[in-house]
Every structure is written in C-alpha cells, then in structure tokens.
Write a structure and sequence with these properties.
The chain is an alpha/beta fold. α3 crosses α10. The C terminus is likely disordered. A hairpin with a 2-residue loop joins β3 and β4. The protein is globular, with a radius of gyration of 22 Å. It has two domains: 283 residues, Mur-like, catalytic domain (UDP-N-acetylmuramoyl-L-alanine:D-glutamate ligase, 3-Layer(aba) Sandwich), CATH 3.40.1190.10; 124 residues, Alpha-Beta Complex (Protein-Tyrosine Phosphatase, Chain A), CATH 3.90.190.20. The protein contains 15 helices and 17 strands. The longest helix is centred in the first third of the chain and has 21 residues. The N and C termini lie far apart (50 Å).
C-alpha cells in the first residue's frame, strides 16, 4: 500500500510534538498499547536497525512480535510489521479505517476543531491497535523524532534503548548534542531497564543521570557492553554472557554497535524472565534487514537513507573499505531544512561523480539549487533532474551507483527498480550524442 485516503488528508499535517492528544485518543481506543510487553528504541541513527534486530531475534525465540518503524521508504506497510513481515494491505486498511472512525467520533464529542491528530500520530495509534488485534506478545517500537515528546512515548516499556546521538532535527530537539540527548533520554521510564550505544563523552552523562534519577539499570559500551570484529564475524558481550562468531545481516561495520545494543536489550529481557536463547539471538541478528539501509536493490546499485552527518560518516566508512570500481557515481537528493554539505562532504572522497536529483516528496530540494550549495566540494558535479530520469541515465554510465541523502529518495529508487525502470536500455534523446570526437 502506497498510501491510504485517511492519511492522504493528513499528509501535510507536519510535526506537532506532544503527548496529550495521543494519550487522550488512546483512552478512547481502550489503551491498546498496554496489551503487550514493549521495547522502546530511540536514536539519531541506528534505531531502525536495532528495532529490526531485536524483533527478528524475539521471533526466532518463539514470540509473536510486532515492530513499528518510521518512516517508510516505499510502502506504508513497512511501518507496521507482525511476525517478521509488513502487515497486509487488507489488514492495514481495516485498522486505519477503524482508527479513523474513532478519531472522528472523538473529535466531534470533544469539539476539537481541525485535524485532532497528525499523520504520524494516527499511524502510531494504528500500529498499537494492529498489535493488540493480532495479540502480539511483545512490540518493538521505534521513535519517530526525538523521544520525550514523540507520539510513541506513551508506552510503558520493559526495556528502552538509545542507539546514538548526533546533530539532526535541531529546530525541534535543540542546537547541541546535550540538548538532543536530553530529548532522547525522555523515553527512560521508572520500572524499565536501559541500554545505550556509543556516545560522545559530553553526552553519556545525560543518560547516566537520567537512569540514576529513575532508579534504572543502565548498560553502556565499554563497561557492560563490549564488541570486537575478526574476519567479518563479531564477538558481542554483555553482563549476561558472550555471543561469538556472529554474522550480522545488515551491511556496514557500524552495525556492530547496533548489534551490541540489540544484544543488551535481549539480555535484559532475558534477565526479566523472557526466555531467549543465544541461538535465537544469533539467527535474529543474521536475518534482520531494513529497506533502504545499505541495500543493493539491483546489481551495482546501492541505496542508503543517510541524511545526517552521523549516517553519512557510517556510509563513508563502508565505502572506504569496498573495492573501488572504475566509475562510482553518487546520486544525491535531500529535503529542505538540512545542510547538504554536511552529508555529501564525507562521501565525496569515495566517489568519482556526484549527480543531484529529487524524488516526488513535497519537501524534496530542487536538484539545481542543491548543486549550487555543493559546488565547492572537490568532485565532478552535475545537476540532474527527477529521480525517474536521473537513475537510468546514471546507471547506464556507472560501474557502481550509490543513492543517498534521503530515505524517501531511497524508497523512490526501490520502487523504480521494482517497476523495471532499469530493464529497458537507456536511450539518449536527439542532441545528446557527443559531437566532434572520433572513436578509438
């Protein structure tokens, strides 16, 4: 399902941080988010990967598992998974329509003017209802933005995890790392335990203090959590044991840090009485995947949702360790409100050309304007057009294509590949031929 009429009306509702609306509406729905155990995951980067790893491992351990992701890349169903797969169109439509009916009745009774919920709030409530209807044992919930005031923060979790903190969404979360960390630490709750991933030295005290105030057990890298890599296999350790010779299904060395957080979450759940054996964890880490995260969607065409400096650094590190083809081209597109140099800059040393583009998202930046902002980077640079035109043009020329800058752009490429846009040979339009040169 690409979208739904209910959500199409809310598509431009924007971000409205706060929990009161969602809490009130969930009471109308009968508090579906309290019908199952919950793991809550936040972080600037890596939270989707950790959500996937934990959910897959729990399923391998025999649990019925819900997983809530944000955002989706190609299909709306990607936001709501049950038992290792996105829910069906029919079930998602049924749930959305039921939630929308309740929303309209609530708004009328409470005399609420305008739209009482945003797009994200409605989808979050729909996920909670879907999990309750399918009677999941446990749900792994990824935050949308920040944590403290994010719509998902109405849950009472068994375990919380924060994967990373870097500069992103500064208008909503703050203009420094400590402020952003404080927003993410807002998912910490009394009665839960916590796991955090690698952090800047100035940031870690935010989580330590928050855990101390709430009386929470907190596992951190370097003390409770350790990891090492040898010949492509990981050794992961927590206070609950060591897992050796681990293969991670998701691409990139940065996934080792995410796997360490996932192991910590799973071991804390085990500590709380959830039977989860090491073989299930191993299989879950191996089977976990995320659309649009270092995903090879066609031979030699990789998409990655890197859209902030932390994501760009992880992608750059992965590129630096890959064999360099003769011609590697970066297709780059971004939304408004972000600094493209901060994201494209770390990638430039590992590509030969950069071509700007845009997808159909209403906030996608014009390719020419994007190229102007990137003109000081030391790379062969050109302004492309829409991704539907740019992708086949670049794919016909390059030995390897990297698409980055936006999860929505990654999703657009996934859709184009699925629709067979690369199956037809690219045809140059009249006037595109090279003039005046002899063939060797």
């Amino acid at each position: 399902m690409i979208t739904h009429p209910v959500l199409s009306r809310l598509a431009m509702s924007g971000v409205k941080l706060g929990l009161d609306r969602v809490r009130e509406f969930l009471q109308v729905l009968g508090e579906p988010q309290r019908a199952y155990a919950v793991v809550h995951v936040a972080g600037t980067n890596g939270k989707g990967s950790v959500t996937s790893m934990v959910a897959h491992a729990l399923r391998e351990a025999g649990y019925r598992v819900g997983a809530n992701f944000s955002p989706h890349t190609s299909e709306l169903n990607e936001r709501i998974w049950i038992d290792g797969a996105p829910v069906s169109d029919a079930f998602l439509s049924e749930v959305l329509e039921a939630v929308d009916r309740a929303r309209q009745e609530w708004a009328a009774t409470a005399q609420i003017e305008g739209e009482p919920l945003t797009y994200f709030e409605l989808v979050t409530c729909a996920a909670f209802v879907a999990f309750a209807r399918r009677q999941v044992d446990i749900a792994v919930i990824e935050t949308g933005l920040g944590g403290r005031l994010d719509a998902t923060n109405v849950v009472q979790p068994q375990v919380v995890a924060v994967t990373s903190v870097s500069m992103d969404h500064m208008a909503e979360l703050g203009d420094n790392l400590v402020a952003i960390a404080g927003e993410k630490a807002g998912i910490f709750k009394k009665g839960a335990t916590a796991v955090v991933g690698p952090m800047e030295p100035t940031v870690m005290p935010v989580f330590v203090r928050r855990a101390e105030v709430l009386g929470m057990e907190l596992w951190k890298p370097g003390t409770e959590l350790r990891r090492s890599l040898s010949h492509g296999r990981w050794t992961l350790t927590s206070p609950h044991g060591t897992l050796e010779d681990v293969e991670i299904g998701l691409q990139g060395e940065h996934q080792g840090a995410n796997a360490s957080v996932a192991l910590g979450v799973l071991h804390q759940l085990r500590q709380q009485g959830f039977p989860i054996d090491d073989d299930a964890i191993r299989r879950g880490l191996e089977k976990a995947w995320m659309p649009g995260r270092l995903e090879e969607v066609a031979p030699g065409i990789w998409v990655d949702g890197a859209h902030n400096p932390g994501g760009a650094e992880a992608l750059a590190k992965w590129l630096s360790r890959r064999p360099r083809p003769d011609l590697r081209i970066l297709i780059f597109g971004m939304g408004e409100g972000r600094n493209p140099v901060d994201v494209a800059g770390p990638l430039v040393p590992y590509v030969d050309e950069l071509v700007t583009t845009k997808c159909a998202h209403p906030k996608a930046r014009d390719p020419y304007d994007l190229a102007v902002q990137l003109q000081d980077l030391e790379v062969v640079l050109s302004a492309g057009s829409d991704i539907e035109t740019t992708l086949p043009e670049v794919a016909a020329e390059a030995d390897e294509v990297i698409v980055a800058g936006s999860l929505y752009l990654a999703g657009a490429v996934r859709t184009l590949v699925a629709e067979g846009v690369l199956d037809e040979p690219f045809e140059y339009e009249e006037g595109d031929e090279d003039e005046g040169g002899d063939e060797d």
